[in-house]
Design a protein that fits this description.
Number of domains: 3
Number of helices: 17
Strand content: 25-35%
Distance between the termini: 53 Å
Structural class: alpha+beta
CATH topology of the largest domain: Aldehyde Oxidoreductase, domain 4
CATH superfamily of the largest domain: Aldehyde oxidase/xanthine dehydrogenase, molybdopterin binding domain
C-alpha cells in the first residue's frame, strides 16, 4: 500500500543538487536576452521614447516601443489584466513596461535599458491609501453583497456588541524563482518555457491574443520555484515576451528582476475589515457583519473575497457581508497563498476573540457555542466536517485548558496563548491524466499539471502505485507540458483533488484491463509486488510481465478524467451539489513579548486539522508547518509599503522585506490530522491542504499578544512600535 504512507520526496535530491531545471536555467539556441524598461512615474502619457543611446550599446539588437508592438486581438481572463502595457501610451502605475530591450548578452540589455529615455507628460495619481471605496462590480467569484436574516434585529437584541476595524497591508509573494519566459516561434507555432502554475492559462490567453488555435501554443514548465499565486494568472510580461520574439524573429529569454516582481506581477492587496458582531448573554452570535475593502488598479478590479470566511465558519441567524474596492495607481493585485479565508479570518477571528472576552467566555468555548453544524450561508449539510474533533485534539496537545489565564513572566518576556479557527474553501478544477503500463511492469503517469514543490511528484506516483500494486520506484511521472493530457492547476489547494483523482481513475482503468487479461473479475483482482491474483487466493498469481507478454501487449494505457457538476470549469465549496465542501482546523500558539523592546517571538504552536484523507502524512505535515510559518510572517513581519508621494513600492527587494527565517521559528510545532474521508470532495477522499495551515494564524498570534500584554493590536504586522505603546491600543 502506498496511499497513507509517509514516503520521502523523490525530487528532493535533484532540487538540492541543482539538477532540476527551471525556466531560467536553460537558453534556446540563438536566443536574445530581453529586459523590460519600467515607467518611472505612476501616471501619465508617453509623448516619445528616445532609444538612440540605448541602441548604440554594443550587442543591442533593437529597442521596442509601443509603435513596434502588434495589437493583441482579444485578451480576457485568465489574463490578470486586460489593459496591457505597450498597447497604448497611457501610464497607469509605476514600473509599468514601456519598452523592451533585446541584446545578445544580458549585461548589454541591462546597460541599454538604463539608457532608454522616456518623455512623459506626468498626470496626478491616486495613491494606494487615497482611493474612494466602492462596491465591487467586476471579476467577482461570488456576489459582492450577501445577506441572511435580520442584522438590525440581531444587533438590537444583542446583550453584547463589538465593532472594530482590522487592517492588513499589501504583501508581495517573493518566490525564490522570479518569473521567467523563453519564447520561440516556428511560423504560427509558439513554444513558451514559462514559470507558471497552470500552463493551460498561458496557452488560452496567448492563443486568443495572437489569433491562433490553442494547440498552436505549447507551454513547458517542469519545475516552478515557488509562486504562491503570483504565477497563477497570465501577466503582461508573458504576452510581451511572445510578441517580442515574433517581432524580432528570434527566440528570446526574459527573466524579471526582483524589483520587477513587485511591479509587473500581482501581490496581496491592502485590506480593511470592518467587523460588527452581536451576541446574547450565553455567548451565541445574534448578528455578524463583515465589510471588506481592498485596493485595486486604477482601471480594473481585483476582488479579494475575504468575506467568504464570515459566510462559512460560525453559525449566526443574521449574516451580512459586502466587498468593496479602492482604485489607485498601483499594479494589479492577485490571489496570494490562502486567499479569501486567509485574510478574512484575520478580521473575523480577531473579532470573535474580542467578543469571547467581552461575554466572559473562554475563546475556544465561545467558538464551540457558535459551531456551524451546516453551512451558515446556504444551509447545506457539510460534505464532511470534524472540526469539533480538531478543536478537542488541538486543545489537548497544546494544553489549552491548562494554560495560565494571566500573563506569565519568563525573564524579560511576557508569555501568552491564543487560538483561532482555520478554514479554507475547496477549489476544484477538471483534470485529465494518463497512465501507461509497459510489459516490464513499469508505469508512467502523464499530466500537464506542474510541480511547485508541494509534493505532487510524490503523491501522484503513490496513488498509481497503490492501485496497480507496484513499488513506488516503478512509477514515473511526466508533467508540466501542455502537450500532455490537460491537468488541473497548481493553485487553490486543488491538485490532489483534481489531478490526483484523474490519476486514480486512469490507474483503475489500467487495473481493469489487467484483470481482464488475467481472467479475474476486476472487483476481485488483487495487485501487489508486480503480480495479479484473485483476492483471497493462496496462489502467488501471475506476474504483470508474463501476463502482458502472453497477451502480446507491449503496453496498457488509459486516460482518467475528473469532472465537475454540470461540466463547470471551476467549483468553489461544492457549488452545483447538495453539500458544502470546505476544510477546517484550529491553530493554537504561545508567544513571548518583551514589553520594553517590543520584541515578539513564537514559542510553540499546535495545528489540528479536519481536511479529508491524507495521502502522504510526511508531505502533508511539511505543508502545514510551512503554512503556519507563512501565517507567522503575515502576523509579525510582512508588509510592502507604498510611498504616497512618489506613488511606488518603497522596498522592492528581499533586503527591504522582513520574512521569517529559521531563527524565527521554534522546533516545537505539532501537526495533527483528524481521520476523515470525504467522498464528495474527491474519489480519493482527500481535500486540499496546502493553504489551510496559513489561515487563522495571524489572528491567533494577535489574540496571544492580548493574553500576554492586554493590548489589542488590530493592524498587521505586529511590529515593535505597536507593542511598546502605553496602555491598550487599537494599533
Amino acid at each position: 500500500m502506498s496511499i497513507g504512507e509517509a514516503l520521502p520526496r523523490p525530487d528532493g535530491r535533484i532540487k538540492v543538487t541543482g539538477q532540476a531545471k527551471y525556466t531560467a536555467d536553460q537558453r534556446l539556441d540563438g536566443a536574445l536576452f530581453v529586459v523590460l524598461v519600467g515607467s518611472p512615474v505612476p501616471a501619465g502619457t508617453i509623448r516619445r521614447i528616445d532609444t538612440h543611446e540605448a541602441e548604440s550599446v554594443p550587442g543591442v539588437v533593437r529597442v521596442l516601443t509601443v509603435d513596434d508592438m502588434p495589437h493583441f486581438a482579444n485578451v480576457t481572463a485568465p489574463s490578470a489584466i486586460t489593459l496591457l502595457p505597450m498597447q497604448d501610451t497611457t501610464i497607469r502605475h509605476h514600473g509599468q513596461a514601456i519598452a523592451i530591450v533585446a541584446a545578445e548578452r544580458l549585461e548589454q540589455a541591462e546597460q541599454a535599458a538604463r539608457l532608454v529615455r522616456a518623455d512623459i507628460e506626468v498626470s496626478p495619481f491616486v495613491a494606494q491609501s487615497e482611493g474612494a471605496a466602492v462596491v465591487a462590480t467586476e471579476n467577482l467569484y461570488a456576489p459582492a453583497e450577501f445577506s441572511k436574516g435580520d442584522i438590525a434585529r440581531g444587533l438590537s437584541s444583542a446583550a453584547h456588541r463589538h465593532e472594530a476595524d482590522y487592517l492588513q497591508p499589501s504583501r508581495h509573494h517573493n518566490p525564490m524563482e522570479p518569473s521567467a519566459v523563453q519564447a520561440v516561434w516556428d511560423g504560427d507555432e509558439l513554444t513558451m518555457f514559462d514559470t507558471t502554475q497552470h500552463g493551460y492559462n498561458v496557452q488560452a490567453v496567448l492563443s486568443s491574443a495572437f489569433g491562433i488555435r490553442p494547440e498552436q501554443v505549447r507551454v513547458i514548465c517542469h519545475h516552478t520555484g515557488g509562486g504562491f499565486g503570483c504565477k497563477g494568472f497570465v501577466w503582461p510580461h508573458e504576452l510581451l515576451a511572445a510578441a517580442a520574439a515574433r517581432v524580432l524573429q528570434r527566440p528570446i529569454k526574459l527573466v524579471l528582476s526582483r524589483a520587477q516582481m513587485y511591479s509587473m506581477v500581482g501581490y496581496q492587496p491592502d485590506m480593511r475589515h470592518h467587523m460588527l458582531l452581536g451576541a446574547d448573554a450565553d455567548g451565541r452570535l445574534s448578528a455578524l457583519s463583515h465589510d471588506v475593502e481592498n485596493v485595486t488598479s486604477i482601471a480594473e478590479q481585483f476582488v479579494e473575497h475575504a468575506t467568504s470566511a464570515s459566510q462559512g465558519v460560525y453559525a449566526s441567524p443574521a449574516i451580512q457581508t459586502k466587498q468593496k474596492v479602492r482604485h489607485a495607481n498601483v499594479n494589479h493585485p492577485t490571489a496570494m497563498r490562502a486567499p479569501w479565508e486567509g485574510p478574512g479570518l484575520w478580521g473575523l477571528d480577531s473579532a470573535i476573540d474580542e467578543m469571547a472576552h467581552l461575554v466572559g467566555m473562554d475563546p475556544l468555548d465561545f467558538r464551540l457555542a457558535n459551531y456551524a453544524e451546516t453551512d451558515p450561508a446556504t444551509g447545506k449539510p457539510w460534505s464532511s466536517k470534524k472540526l469539533r474533533e480538531a478543536y478537542a485534539e488541538g486543545a489537548r496537545l497544546f494544553g489549552w485548558y491548562e494554560r495560565p489565564r494571566e500573563p506569565v513572566r519568563d525573564g524579560p518576556w511576557l508569555l501568552g496563548s491564543g487560538m483561532a479557527t482555520s478554514s479554507m474553501g475547496c477549489f476544484r478544477f477538471p483534470s485529465v491524466a494518463r497512465v501507461r503500463l509497459n510489459a516490464s511492469g513499469r508505469a508512467t503517469i502523464e499530466t500537464g499539471c506542474h510541480d511547485i514543490g508541494t509534493g505532487t511528484l510524490t503523491i501522484f506516483p503513490q496513488i498509481a502505485a497503490d492501485v496497480l500494486g507496484l513499488p513506488l520506484d516503478q512509477v514515473s511521472l511526466s508533467m508540466g507540458d501542455t502537450a500532455l493530457p490537460k491537468g488541473g492547476p497548481t493553485y487553490g489547494s486543488s491538485s490532489t483533488m483534481g489531478v490526483g483523482a484523474s490519476v486514480l481513475y486512469a490507474a483503475r482503468s489500467v487495473r481493469a484491463q489487467l484483470a481482464e487479461l488475467a481472467g479475474v473479475p476486476d472487483s476481485q483482482a488483487e495487485l501487489a509486488d508486480g503480480r495479479i491474483r484473485r483476492s483471497g487466493s493462496d496462489e502467488r498469481g501471475q506476474s504483470i510481465f508474463e501476463l502482458m507478454r502472453q497477451a502480446g501487449r507491449a503496453e496498457l494505457r488509459a486516460d482518467g478524467e475528473f469532472s465537475l457538476p454540470g461540466g463547470a470549469p471551476f467549483n468553489a465549496n461544492g457549488e452545483g451539489s447538495d453539500v458544502a465542501i470546505s476544510t477546517f482546523g484550529a491553530i493554537f500558539v504561545e508567544v513571548a513579548v518583551d514589553p520594553e523592546l517590543g520584541l515578539l517571538r513564537l514559542r510553540r504552536a499546535v495545528g489540528s486539522y479536519s481536511a479529508g484523507r491524507i495521502i502522504n502524512p510526511r508531505t502533508a505535515r511539511a505543508q502545514m508547518i510551512g503554512g503556519i510559518i507563512w501565517g507567522w510572517g503575515m502576523a509579525a513581519m510582512e508588509g510592502t509599503h507604498h510611498e504616497p508621494t512618489l506613488g511606488r513600492w518603497l522596498s522592492r527587494d528581499l533586503a527591504g522585506v522582513a520574512v521569517p527565517v529559521n531563527a524565527d521559528i521554534p522546533s516545537d510545532i505539532q501537526i495533527h490530522f483528524v481521520d476523515e474521508f470525504d467522498a464528495h470532495a474527491s474519489p480519493l477522499g482527500a481535500k486540499g491542504i496546502g493553504e489551510l495551515g496559513a489561515t487563522g494564524v495571524a489572528a491567533a498570534v494577535a489574540n496571544a499578544v492580548f493574553a500576554a500584554t492586554g493590548k489589542r493590536v488590530r493592524s498587521l504586522p505586529i511590529t515593535p512600535a505597536k507593542l511598546v505603546m502605553e496602555g491598550a491600543s487599537n494599533a
